[in-house]
Amino acid sequence: TDAQETTAGSAGVNGPTRARIGARTLRTDTWWLYPLATFVVFSGFVVFATYRAFDGDNYFVEPYLSPFYSPCLTDSCQAGSSDFGQPISWWSLSPALIILIFPLGFRLTCYYYRKAYYRAFWLSPPACAVAEPHAKYTGETRFPLILQNIHRWFWYAAVVVALILTYDAVLAFGPAEGEPDGIHMGLGTVLMWANVVLIWLYTLSCHSCRHITGGRLRHFSKHPVRYRMWTFVSKLNARHGTYAWYSLFSVAIVDFYIYLLATGAFDDPRFF
Ligand code: FES
């Protein structure tokens, strides 16, 4: 609302009720390290993920499918990579681009990531007790940031994505090319399971998930099951930011690992 709009000259840290402090911050610690690290790591991930998503190649090596390409739904998908058929034939770009909107939307609207990229990319503010350089502040009350409110809907989509990735991790126990039928395991299987566990931890520790399980209840005592779920999610929620980072790394690592296998740069160690 307009009431929330502030101008650096007259409000916010320069408001009449605030102490007159000329410096942008009085902090003497390395507060800039966190936003700087976030900026570097996120930028690196965006460059890598953009390249891989547009690549349209080297994302499937039996029995491993890259999380960037799952589910693979177009008729250009590599043979064997489409768990759910190939219902889309009109799409001529990389099949990853159709489905990445869901995990991407989920992360972009995530409460933790919002804090991280508002600080690192917009410096709004760069850290606690460090004034931001912008003259105006409207929060998330206007387009486009008001769209952050659809996070809960992305959460529903993210649960479906996590289920599909879990299915892929089960399929990762399948035989590699040339192996007999039955249960097998390679380093790729381990990496895919590590990734899917981290994806679940990230998805279930979500603030929206916490509200979905325990929000809008007047009496926890009358909803013991939801109370238990809420307690569980609340514990995970305390580490949501950590899971956000770990799961970001793990999807990139699994994709890169499959890329290395597909390009022949590395051979998957097989345990059995
Ligand atoms: Fe981070 Fe929902 S708050 S995924």
- Our count of helices gives 9
Strand order of the largest sheet: 1-4
Q: Into which percentage range does the β-strand content fall?
A: under 5%
Distance between the termini: 61 Å
| Strand runs, count | 4
Look at the helices and sheets and give the structural class: mainly alpha
- Described by the principal axes of the CA atoms, the overall outline is globular
Mean pLDDT: 92
> What is the CA-atom radius of gyration, in angstroms?
22 Å
Low-confidence stretches: 1-8
Tell me the quaternary state: single chain
Ligands in the structure?
Answer: FE2/S2 (inorganic) cluster
Please give the largest β-sheet.
2 strands, antiparallel
Task: Classify the helix fraction into a percent range.
Answer: 40-55%
Topology as H/E string?
Answer: EHEEHHHEHHHHH
Report on this structure.
The model is unreliable at 1-8 (pLDDT under 50). The strands form two sheets. This protein has a two-stranded antiparallel sheet. The chain has nine helices and four strands. It is mainly α and 272 residues long. The longest helix is centred in the first third of the chain and has 23 residues, at 33-55. The N and C termini lie far apart (61 Å). It is 47% helix and 3% strand. FE2/S2 (inorganic) cluster binds next to helix 4, helix 5 and helix 7. This is Succinate dehydrogenase.
